[in-house]
């Protein structure tokens, strides 16, 4: 399964290291996070359309869909209602462009850098190239609000979108 990580916030790193998480870290962890971020930042340019097939996009889930290319397949994920809030039923609408997957795609919800347990959204066909399902993003006890949605498209791969939710 080929995986390409795309589609996070433009300039995602400051957001991922939100104030709330940095203050809680001890100095050692803070140093590690800083080093990790610098290392990741240096990798970022390689994620941006190096071969014309991949495209890095912003994912402001409150404003519109998260969109990315998974190989040659255009994947768009819309979460509603907006703003996207924790602890309420959300509708996930996935658009798959081009050739359709043999089996239904699905989404795993999780937090960046934290195991929140399994939270899978199963999708069912709604129309040509449109799949829909519902799920709930829980409220993290730590107060962190950065979540990720990993979209699995059978026989194609997976793509991860990182976004923030409202409490
Ligand atoms: Cu959490």
| CATH fold-level name | Immunoglobulin-like
- The CATH architecture designation is Sandwich
The tally of strands reads: 9
CATH-level-4 superfamily name: Macroglobulin (MG2) domain
Sheet with the most strands: spatial strand order: 1-2-3-7-6
Write down the oligomeric state: single chain
- What's the order of the H and E elements? HHHEEEEEEEEE
Shape: globular
State the CATH class.
Answer: Mainly Beta
> Pairing-aware structural class of the strands and helices?
alpha+beta
Q: How much strand content do the residues show?
A: 25-35%
Give the names of the bound compounds: copper (II) ion
How many structurally independent domains? Answer: 1
Q: State the share of residues found in helices, binned by percent.
A: 10-25%
The biggest beta sheet reads: 5 strands, antiparallel
- First-to-last CA distance: 35 Å
The chain-level mean pLDDT equals 76
Per DSSP, the total helix count is: 3
Point out poorly predicted stretches: 1-25, 29-57
Radius of gyration: 16 Å
Sum up the structure in keywords:
four-stranded antiparallel β-sheet, Immunoglobulin-like, disordered N terminus, alpha+beta, 19% helix, binds copper (II) ion, five-stranded antiparallel β-sheet, 3 helices, 167 residues
């Amino acid at each position: 399964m080929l995986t390409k990580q795309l589609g996070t916030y433009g300039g995602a790193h400051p957001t991922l290291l939100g104030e709330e998480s940095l203050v809680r870290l001890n100095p050692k962890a803070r140093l590690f996070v800083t080093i990790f971020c610098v290392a990741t930042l240096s990798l970022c340019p390689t994620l941006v359309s190096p071969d014309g097939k991949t495209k890095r996009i912003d994912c402001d889930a409150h404003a519109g869909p998260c969109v990315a290319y998974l190989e040659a397949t255009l994947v768009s994920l819309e979460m509603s209602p907006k703003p996207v809030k924790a602890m309420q039923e959300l509708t996930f609408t996935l658009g798959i462009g081009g050739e359709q997957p043999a089996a239904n795609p699905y989404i795993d919800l999780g937090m960046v850098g934290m195991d929140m347990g399994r939270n899978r959204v199963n999708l069912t066909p709604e129309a040509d190239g449109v799949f829909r399902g519902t799920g709930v993003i829980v409220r993290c006890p730590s107060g962190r609000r950065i979540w990720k949605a990993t979209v699995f498209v059978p026989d194609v791969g997976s793509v991860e979108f990182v976004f923030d939710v409202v409490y």
